[in-house]
Amino acid sequence: MGQGEKLKVISVVGPKKSGKTSLVEAMVRSLEGRGRVGTVKSMPDHEIEDRGDTRRHFDAGAEVVLGVGKDGVTLSVSRGGSLDSALKALEGSGVDYAVVEGFKSSDLPKIVLGGIDVPNSIRMVDGGPPFDERLIEELVELLMTLPDYRSPEVG
After folding, report:
1. Which own/partner contact pairs does 46-55 have at CB distance under 8 Å and 24+ positions apart?
2. For 78-100, what is the mean pLDDT?
């Protein structure tokens, strides 16, 4: 567990091209003045490890590879990464809210686009972008009422 950090987490799920990223963007913008916000994105089609220098670093035995890019942006790639490990990293960084894109089968509470059937759906959203400001406000309020995220105990 963290040092008493409080983190509210919600996941936005739906089929490809249903507006997940647009909804995440709108929610992050709305949350901006209310605390620190982090996001986690499911990237199953991006095999970051299998390209170039990152792959070479892993092959040499590195467990975590950090890339520092333009404008001081840091990208972290780690072996055995998971949704839990990503949320634990956000929890430890002092973020107040995490908006997750994807991870349909996770136990996280979910906002669902495109009418798909997933576990822990707490709100269905009809239609796609552009999203109505009142809807975004309602979804942000919903996030703020959720219980604090608890990372699974390891061991």
Report:
1. 48/77, 49/77, 49/79
2. 88
